[in-house]
Amino acid sequence: NAGLLRLTKVFEGKEKLLIPVFMIFFSFTGAFLGFSEENIVFVPLAVSVARYLGYDGIVGICISYLATQVGFFAGMMNPFNVGVAQGIANLPMFSGIGFRFFIWAVFMVITAWFVMSYAEKIKKNPELSLVADIKFDESKFVDLSKIDIKLTFGHKIIYLVFVAAIVAVLYGAYNFGWYVQEISAIFLIIGIVSGLICKLSPTQIATEFVAGAKSITFGALIVGFAKGIYLIMSDSMILDTMINSAVGILDIFPSSLAIIGLFMIQWFINIIITSSTGLAAIAMPILTPIADMLNINRQVTVVAFQLGDGINGSILPTSSTLLATCAMADVPFDRWFKFMFKLTMIWTGVSCVILIIANVMNLGPF
Known about the structure:
By secondary structure, this protein is an all-alpha fold. It contains 16 helices and no strands.
């Protein structure tokens, strides 16, 4: 709270600039750490900031969840989509990072512009907010307008602990194969160490942990149920059959059109399989030989996969992460869909242009 208050005072009079600042930060967690559902815990905080600045819960979702998704599918060094896909395609790990930085920049500019336009509109006229009639559960959010707290030396130490932990996660993910369990352990350690720095007793630390966990229980249940549906479809081979049938039609198109077809098939497959790692493991062994036969190099194929895997993830009712995020922010899914559909279509069109560029320049190595 103290840090957010300090930040809002620094940007006083130019609050609109806080939107791209937050979005760039959260996008990097997706691009370099592979964060997705891990950032759900930050949604109430982001919504609190958005509402304090005169915006709504949708803007709060955008500066946290949506920004993370942009970084995730741009995937400069994302081990969970690009890393797995390149490994299966026998490409050097994280090769082509320069082009993926270009992808990130293009989508970040488009997304920040779209969000800032909406935010400015509802700040001038709050009735235009898509959730203007929704009653928020105030207990889930922090009312920053009622808080007067100074940023202390202890707070700054906690920030250093947090930064050190992020560096540890980054190092561990790429050197020791850390995944959700290890990342969760790091965040638990952050909480305990932060409590000790603030001179809380062990009992108080445990109490605060339980209080924080309460707000994400519903989201966790949604994630679990959605994962169960995915496992049933995967283990029964339904997904494999659907993917094999879908990609079989691509060999009738020239490579310039086939790459768009490859992307669109991924776009629709992602409606069913929302796990990037799972989709890469299932789809890439099929897509790689098809791309070879169509004379599409493998690096371009990976780009088609990563864009097709992530572009529509922010409107899918099958996405457990999205549903949990909407639940956390008190934003009904239908309202979020209405906001996000136009941007998703813009993303889709831009993706096709990017893929044509990548195919024409024969993006390598292949």
